[in-house]
Amino acid sequence: MRILVAGAGGLVGRAVEEHCLAQHDQIFSYTHETLDISDTASVSTTIEQVRPDAVINCAAWTDVDGCEIDSARAHAANANGPENLAKASRQCGAVFVTISTDYVFDGAKEGFYTQRDDPNPISVYGSSKLEGERRAQRALARAIVVRTGFIFGCGGRNFLSTVAERGRRGERLKTISDASGTPTYAPHLAARLRELVELDLPGVFHVVNSGDGASYEQFTRAALEVGGYDQTNLETVTMRSLNRPALRPANSRLKCLLSEAIGLEPLPSWHHALSDFISSEKKTQTVTQG
Ligand SMILES: NC(=O)c1ccc[n+]([C@@H]2O[C@H](COP(=O)([O-])OP(=O)(O)OC[C@H]3O[C@@H](n4cnc5c(N)ncnc54)[C@H](OP(=O)(O)O)[C@@H]3O)[C@@H](O)[C@H]2O)c1
């Protein structure tokens, strides 16, 4: 397949590129520098030139506090961006997948959020992503929206990489006790995104690793335990004590009503994914130190 990946420099973008290359796809990767998805003309010209079978949008402005301060930039990247890509995909007959977030929900629910729950974002980031979902769907009936959350994976700066690195160095670490989500391993998400491209079934999917979800604290403790790192340097804090500009949902655990109904296997448990991640982080560390 000819697959165009937008946001290829990010955590998920890199995982998608790696997975699709392993499937022998022809990949056309664009980073923020090479394609700004908020630029309607560039998006249209690029997709017209490449004429891909599928477009996978991994680009977004993911700085949740930054979005709260600069809502115009948040909407340009997270709402206009998916709309531009969806319109250009329609013009060349490509399947379009765009990634959204668990932060479209307000967190007031106790259980898992499914597609039956009404989104009600409590941050600019969440509203801009929800707007992106809706604009993509309006622009292209064939659009596939994938909500996910608590993503971890190798390379770059992400929450669990920091945990693994500080755990290894025995450094002090802060973790939040009152926010829960469903951890999602970037390589597993990448594989599911490609499966969804092949199925070409439009709609909203929730894609996360299996299990009951976890608070950041539980997730951090599990990572330290799997890595064999000391937990005494772990300081537990509440969301409010951090006094950040943007609100985050206290609960954003996701479950999908559709995946199994269309024959997709549940993704492995996040505990299993975490072990994979910690051992590959350790291998990378050994290689760079060796
Ligand atoms: N990470 C999570 O826990 C999480 C949770 C739920 C949903 N998601 C969603 O998952 C998707 C992938 O996120 P990620 O974790 O891979 O984030 P990431 O590592 O921050 O990657 C996002 C990429 O998008 C690029 N980008 C930003 N604005 C852009 C624009 N206008 N045009 C083109 N590229 C742009 C960024 O480049 P620069 O850094 O150079 O600006 C970055 O390389 C996003 O849709 C995000 O909302 C992530």
What does this structure look like?
- The chain is an alpha/beta fold and 290 residues long.
- It has a domain at 2-154 and 184-210 and 252-268: Rossmann fold.
- The protein is 44% helix and 16% strand.
- The protein has a six-stranded parallel sheet, sandwiched between helices. A two-stranded parallel ribbon has the order 6-9.
- β4, α5 and β5 form a beta-alpha-beta unit.
- The mean pLDDT is 94.
- The structure holds NADP nicotinamide-adenine-dinucleotide phosphate (NAP).
Bound molecules: NADP nicotinamide-adenine-dinucleotide phosphate
Major sheet characteristics: 6 strands, parallel
- CA-based shape: globular
Cα Rg: 18 Å
| Total beta strands | 12
Q: Strands across the major sheet, in which order?
A: 2-1-3-4-5-10
Structural class: alpha/beta
Low-confidence parts: none
* Count of DSSP-assigned helices: 10
Please indicate the percent range of residues in DSSP E strands (runs of 2 or more).
15-25%
Highest-level CATH class of one domain? Alpha Beta
Tell me, rounded to a whole number, the average pLDDT.
94
> Termini, distance in Å?
38 Å
CATH architectural designation of one domain: 3-Layer(aba) Sandwich
CATH fold category name of one domain:
Rossmann fold
Helix content: 40-55%
Determine the CATH superfamily of one domain.
NAD(P)-binding Rossmann-like Domain
